[in-house]
Specification:
about 45% helix; extended; Arc Repressor Mutant, subunit A; four-stranded mixed β-sheet; alpha+beta
Length: about 475
């Protein structure tokens, strides 16, 4: 049989991912903070979309969606025959205009760059922290190889506040050095910036800062060294009796401590970023019933531009390209509003389903969390699992028991003989409580925890206990045991 090319017509159905559909899917998986940014960006890009500043209607339903308007209709524009083609004319960036030269010829003697030009420091991939700053200073100290090793051990055991978390005896034991050498290196480190670094507590840190200011024998130094609890409570009478000084002198010393010193010298060099959680939905209990409300605070209420609608419907002098542009922008704005409304309605439906499945959790606590998978919720609200997955990703709910990610309510089932299956999150809660109540001198091993769980008809292996413990960020037994 000879091979040949042949044309053939074939009729088939398939889902086409249009730009509007991609936008709807993207909106569905955005969290509260990302949604706010997306709304502002869309308002800036689409002139046919604007904020509705009219007072919102009073609605009795607490689950009403007031962040947008659903009922928006666009009349078909029959005069449009061809879509407007827009060419991307991107201006090429002239990188020579930027003062980011890292070669050996770089000099600040050149012409001063513009104020809005990025500096070379903006291209550093990682922000230097306290450890890097101390290492840079130690590099200029005259330390031999052994002393450098001791110094690295010291600064490696500083917490984010700049306090030393090990004692001198531990340093001597771990590095194999003499006690005098360890004390000398500690003095070297405490001479570095920031003042008060490598102190054992707040009292020593404040005292080191006063010594750096040349006030190591002042009244303020005596207060932070010997009477810090009285300073914390601002007990002027007790401080006056303890130091034998008059109240005005005590007040001046305290003002010096408060204005010139910092109790946590290393905190300003901390590189951790604070990630704030803003709940996407609230679940509150009113008169014995749980009520679901979306978090639409500060979200703009959107509407179609009345000006553009009037132009499209009443102005017969508009050119074809202008009419096409306005019509396209109105259609995009209409789709955006409907996609946003659909997103919010879907979140409410998913949260309602979770509330029905996990009612015991809301009433009795985390130990009563039931096994739940995406398929259960998808079948309950008659949606696809991928839709439920997008809704529950990176979104949080504020409940009477705290703030939880929606994914928290989904967990695998652990079978039990003669009883209902138990959720893995419930078992984690039990493990955390067991470790919190354990004897710190003889803490529970993973095997002991597994045996105690078996007594409660929860049969899981030791390695599963270890996995759950690691997920809870709980240290192993050897690190939880108190040293005698």
């Amino acid at each position: 049989m000879a091979l040949e090319l042949r044309q053939q017509l074939k009729l088939s159905q398939k889902l086409v991912m249009t730009q509007q559909l991609r936008q709807a899917i993207k909106l569905l998986q955005l969290n509260r903070l990302e949604l706010s940014d997306a709304l502002q960006a869309e308002i800036e890009q689409n002139p046919a979309l604007e904020e509705d500043f009219s007072p919102p209607e009073v609605v009795d339903n607490p689950m009403s969606l007031s962040s947008t308007v659903e009922d928006t209709g666009i009349r078909p524009e029959s005069e449009i025959t061809e879509r407007l083609k827009v060419d991307d004319n991107l201006v090429e960036t002239n990188w020579e205009d930027y003062a980011n030269n890292f070669d050996s010829n770089f000099s600040f003697s050149h012409e001063t760059p513009p104020a809005d030009a990025p500096s070379q420091f903006e291209f550093i991939s990682e922000k230097p922290g306290l450890l890097a700053y101390l290492q840079w200073q130690l590099a200029h100290s005259e330390l031999d190889e052994k002393e450098w090793e001791i110094a690295l051990f010291f600064i490696g055991n500083l917490n984010r506040y700049g306090f030393l978390e090990v004692d001198i005896a531990r340093v001597v034991e771990e590095t194999g050095c003499e006690l005098d050498d360890a004390e000398y290196i500690l003095e070297v480190i405490q001479e570095l910036d920031p003042p008060g670094i490598a102190a054992r507590d707040v009292s020593e840190s404040l005292f080191l800062q006063l010594e750096r200011l040349g006030k190591g024998k002042s009244l303020a130094a005596e207060i932070v060294r010997d009477h810090l609890p009285l300073l914390e409570t601002r007990n002027y009478k007790a401080l006056s009796r303890a130091t034998g000084r008059k109240k005005p002198e005590i007040e001046r010393a305290i003002n010096l401590i408060v204005s010139e010193l910092t109790p946590f010298p290393g905190l300003s060099y901390a590189t951790e970023e604070t990630n704030y959680v803003v709940p996407d939905v609230y679940v509150r209990k009113f008169d014995g019933e749980y009520v679901i409300r979306l978090n639409d605070d500060d979200l703009p209420q959107l509407k179609l531009s009345s000006l553009y609608q009037d132009l499209l419907q009443n102005d017969k002098t508009l050119e074809k390209e202008s009419r096409q542009y306005i019509s396209e922008k109105l259609k995009n704005a209409d789709w955006f509003i409907k996609s946003l409304y659909q997103r919010q309605r879907t979140i409410v439906k998913v949260m309602e389903s979770i509330l029905r499945f996990q009612m015991d959790f809301f009433e009795r606590g985390a130990q009563y969390l039931k096994p739940l998978i995406l398929k259960d919720v998808a079948e309950d609200i008659e949606m696809h699992e991928s839709t439920v997955s997008r809704v529950t990703s990176n979104k949080y709910v504020h409940t009477p028991r705290g703030i939880f990610e929606l994914k928290y309510f989904f967990s695998t089932a652990i079978p039990r003989e003669g009883e209902d299956d138990m959720a893995s999150e419930s078992i984690k809660t039990i493990i955390r409580k067991m470790i919190q109540e354990e004897d710190k001198d003889t803490p529970l091993s993973d095997n002991a925890i597994s045996e105690q769980l078996a007594e409660r008809n929860i049969k899981i292996a030791r390695r599963t206990v270890a996995k759950y413990r690691e997920q809870l960020k709980i240290l192993p037994v050897k690190h939880r045991r108190h040293a005698k």
